[in-house]
Design a protein that fits this description.
Family (chain A): Belongs to the ferredoxin--NADP reductase type 1 family.
Protein name (chain A): NADPH:adrenodoxin oxidoreductase, mitochondrial
Largest interface: A-B, 35 and 30 residues
Oligomer: heterodimer
CATH topology of the largest domain in chain A: Rossmann fold
Strand content of chain A: 15-25%
Number of strands of chain B: 6
Strand order of the largest sheet of chain B: 1-3-2-6-4-5
CATH superfamily of the largest domain in chain A: NAD(P)-binding Rossmann-like Domain
Distance between the termini of chain A: 38 Å
CATH architecture of the domain at 63-161 in chain B: Roll
Distance between the termini of chain B: 18 Å
Number of helices of chain A: 17
CATH class of the domain at 63-161 in chain B: Alpha Beta
Radius of gyration of chain B: 16 Å
Mean pLDDT of chain A: 93
Order of helices and strands of chain B: HEEEHEHHEE
CATH architecture of the largest domain in chain A: 3-Layer(aba) Sandwich
Largest sheet of chain A: 7 strands, mixed
Structural class of chain B: alpha/beta
Radius of gyration of chain A: 25 Å
CATH class of the largest domain in chain A: Alpha Beta
Strand content of chain B: 5-15%
GO molecular function, one term (chain A): oxidoreductase activity
Pathway (chain A): Amino-acid biosynthesis
Catalytic activity (chain A): 2 reduced [adrenodoxin] + NADP(+) + H(+) = 2 oxidized [adrenodoxin] + NADPH
Chain lengths: 500, 175
């Protein structure tokens, strides 16, 4: 008995005095948090892992990117929270710290982190927009990037009250165009065509400001416009199926036979599993309900409604936008596009054929774009267009040489592509590399001490736990999964009055 | 997408196996702390199981059996309860299986390759599962999601491999 309690005391004091290697992760979205989670789960070397987050609250795109009607995708936050809860305490060989409201490059410099930490991992994602570069894109009212739009309806504090969106005249929006063919384009479509269906959207954590605006819009038609053809659509089958299944509410999908007809796509000749399933899905759903041959496409009978009540979404292909046309108030009224074609040697070219679509709202969904931190230039860190120059997650300098102690994971490493599962795997790979490098380092940096946060206003993990509880409780009161705080001032006020 | 025939994958995994490493674990102490998932495996014996959450202790005489073949070829065999999913079993025994979406068929991180001998005994995957399998790395003809396979008497003895390829399979992986 005595020996047992002695060894318990010994273990506790070891974990208090253990020399932990310090790792800073910049960004608390899935890539940052999965990197931290993997480090804390697998490292045999004791670590102090700090996640730095620009916003007051964590989780990045999981909180502000994932569609509100896909709450199960956000379950990764449970993994992150368990990890943070476990390692925030003091009885473990590892230590975890969350610092919110601090932007690396502003209150704390990247160079300071590189001097003090044993490893710094850039996981700050993509904060910009890819552009079409056409007339009217930045100036016309009623033209938005997908990132702006998604941030707005997800209640991002910098966008939730954006007057360009909240003061837009939604009551005139009938025809919508979306440029792009990824899952975000389909998320946007789903919201635009189905937002009036209470059973789908009322229980979600969507910003009520956005939901009420959208519900005042008499949307009739959403065109999802792609530069290339049906074969090249980047969205996944799951999201496409979700759209087709909205037919049970009288929301119909359309693909012009020019771009898709069954004879073009003889499934017996298709080897690719994903494409084969997509062809079968579209072929079946485009048939009248009673002519469908497979029972998984006959789950719900579409309602018999008046044609004037039908809302349509349409997959439109081989078009490139040329110009946004505006009315006398500078608001979009139509979009000029040219038709594209594929040449005999499989090149995509623009033709002289043009078409004009009436349009009351245009959303460009071309992907988010990564931005370099200001300090990269002075430090000689290489940024490759829209992401970090890196080899296996180790960041390179402008001469292509590995920059010591600096890594990248997630979208800022590879560009804005992939779902949470692929981001997770990428984060694990980078964490493995970091652990490899740390274990080879025989001495730590000369000045391994804590970063001094005493003069810097920031939120902690314990603050987030209070905010989270408050949002969930508000959700219970309003029969929603959660009601988010929509601005920073409200959060700070809440924290100030809940100091204990 | 480069598809690996699952028999190839399965035989490959078996070739890497050490002699059968049988772990029953039934008499292990239940763990009520969440630390289970985060302690380095080196410091805990493999007979620690966490019977919190969704893993159930099978009643004596009613045990079903499942074998997991890990990425390094090691085999882990467990006695399990009817109705538990492979994801719950794997996570309860601290195996390297992630369930990013919490087992709700909304991701592909619990992807397993089922021994062809047992594949047909499973009910066919529905569209939702197939949509997620579309995105799995190293998809094979007998791939399934661990969160969708519930233990039943029909699949007693089932063997599944955790995919060795954890990123997109490239042609030079086969050299």
């Amino acid at each position: 008995m005595e020996l047992h309690s002695l060894s318990k005391v010994f273990v506790r004091s070891v974990s208090d005095n253990v020399a932990r290697r310090r790792v800073s992760v910049i960004g608390s979205g899935p890539s940052g948090f999965y990197t931290a989670y993997h480090l804390l789960s697998k490292s045999t070397v004791p670590l102090h892992v700090t996640i730095w987050e620009k916003l007051l609250v964590p989780f990045g795109l999981s909180r502000y990117g994932v569609a509100p009607d896909h709450p199960e995708v956000k379950n990764c936050e449970d993994t992150f929270s368990k990890c943070a809860n476990t390692f925030s305490g003091s009885d473990h060989k590892h230590k975890f710290e969350f610092v919110g409201g601090v932007e690396i490059g502003k209150q704390i410099k990247l160079s300071e982190l590189l001097a003090q930490e044993d490893a710094v991992i850039l996981s700050y994602g993509c904060s910009g927009d890819r552009k079409l570069g056409i007339d009217g894109e930045s100036t016309a009212k009623g033209v938005f990037s997908s990132r702006t739009f998604v941030n707005w309806y997800n209640g991002h504090p910098y966008f939730a009250h954006d007057p360009y969106l909240t003061e837009f005249d939604w009551t005139k929006v009938r025809n919508v165009g979306i440029i792009g063919n990824g899952n975000v384009a389909l998320d946007l479509t789903r919201l635009l065509v189905s937002n009036k269906i209470g059973s789908i959207w009322n229980p979600t954590d969507i910003s009520l400001i956005a939901l009420n605006c959208l519900r005042s819009a008499p949307i009739k038609n959403v065109k999802i416009i792609a530069r290339r053809d049906f074969v090249h659509s980047k969205f996944t089958n799951k999201e496409l199926r979700e759209l087709w299944e909205l037919e049970r509410y009288g929301i119909r999908g359309k693909i012009d036979p020019e771009f898709f007809n069954e004879t073009m796509c003889d499934t017996s000749k298709i080897n690719d599993r994903v494409f084969k399933r997509r062809v079968e899905m579209c072929a079946e759903y485009l048939k009248p309900f009673d002519k469908r041959t497979k029972k998984n496409y006959k789950k719900y009978v579409p309602p018999a409604i008046d044609e004037s009540e039908v809302i349509t979404w349409e997959l439109d292909y081989l078009k490139s936008p040329l110009k946004v046309n505006v009315d006398e108030h500078g608001k979009i009224e139509s979009l000029n596009l040219c038709k594209n074609k594929t040449t005999k040697d499989s090149k995509l070219v623009k033709t002289q054929d043009e078409v004009t679509y009436e349009m009351d709202l245009l959303i460009t969904s071309l992907g988010y774009e990564g931005k370099p931190l200001e300090e990269f230039k002075d430090l000689g860190i290489k940024f490759d267009g829209d992401h970090m120059a890196n080899i296996n997650g180790r960041v390179q300098d402008i001469h292509g040489v590995i920059f010591p102690k600096l890594y990248a994971s997630g979208w800022i490493r590879r560009g804005s592509q992939g779902v949470i599962a692929s981001t997770m795997q990428g984060a694990f790979d980078v964490a493995d590399i970091v652990m490899q490098d740390i274990s080879h380092e025989t001495k730590t940096t000369e000045t391994t001490r804590e970063i001094d946060l005493s003069g810097i206003k920031h939120t902690t993990w314990s603050d987030w736990q209070k905010i989270n509880k408050s949002e969930l409780e508000a959700g219970v009161r309003q029969s929603k999964t959660r009601v988010k705080y929509l601005d920073d001032a409200e959060i700070l006020q809440f924290l100030a009055s809940n100091k204990s | 997408m480069i598809r690996t025939s699952s028999i190839f994958c399965f035989r490959n995994a078996l070739r890497l196996c050490k002699p059968n490493n049988m772990v029953t674990g039934v008499r292990a102490m239940p763990r009520s702390t969440l630390l289970t998932n985060f302690t380095g495996r080196a410091s805990f014996s493999s007979s620690r199981i966490s019977y919190h959450g969704d893993l159930h202790r099978p009643r004596p005489g009613e045990e079903l059996h499942v074998t997991f073949i890990l990425k390094d070829g090691t085999q882990k065999k467990y006695e399990v309860c009817e109705g538990d999913t492979l994801l719950d079993i794997a996570q309860g025994h601290n195996l390297d299986m992630e369930g990013a979406c919490g087992g709700s068929c909304a991701c592909s991180t619990c992807h397993v390759i089922v021994d062809p001998e047992y594949y047909d005994a499973l009910p066919e995957p529905d569209d939702d599962e197939n949509d997620m399998l579309d995105l799995a790395y190293g998809l094979t003809e007998t791939s399934r999601l661990g969160c969708q396979i519930k233990m039943t008497k029909d699949i007693d003895g089932i063997r599944v491999a955790l995919p060795a390829m954890t990123r997109n399979v490239k042609s030079n992986d086969f050299n």
